Amino acid sequence: MYIQRKTKANTKYEYGCDLRRLYPWDKVVDPLWGAAIASVRPGESTDPHRHDELETFIVISGQGVMLVGSEKAELGQGDVVYIPRNETHSFQNISAIDELVFLTIYWDSPESLEKMKSIIHSKETSYSIEEKI
């Protein structure tokens, strides 16, 4: 069993929020996707940005306004939003007191697709070697 303790977590201020990266998990597991817990400070907003992967946010606590492209929506605990590839997005904490906390899960980046191709190729190679034996 592997455990990441919150008290020992490596949290960095990135994209305008406190970000605790969960996966990939160094020296434990390197999946084809990534995840992090993000916390937007009261009255602040994540930096508008975009990237070449797919992403979803699951709101854990707090209230915020999500902006994806030209669309805007208020989100709260339990709400889920999907962010398409290369869409500029930001998440504003509308509370002056409480943090806005969400889980971000991202996948299908060019790097992960190359990694998947490599895994598939290595399995195909091992199958062809076994077939020849």
Question: Please, could you describe this protein's structure?
Answer:
With 133 residues, the chain is α+β, with helices and mostly antiparallel strands. The chain has a single domain, classed as Sandwich (Jelly Rolls), CATH 2.60.120. The protein has one helix at residues 110-132, and strands at 11-14, 17-23, 33-40, 54-61, 63-68, 71-76, 80-83, 89-93, 100-107. A six-stranded antiparallel β-sheet has the order 1-2-3-9-4-7, with no helix packed on it. The radius of gyration is 18 Å and the shape is globular. The mean pLDDT is 89.
Characteristic terms for this protein:
17% helix; 9 strands; Jelly Rolls; single chain; alpha+beta; 3-stranded antiparallel beta sheet; globular; 6-stranded antiparallel beta sheet
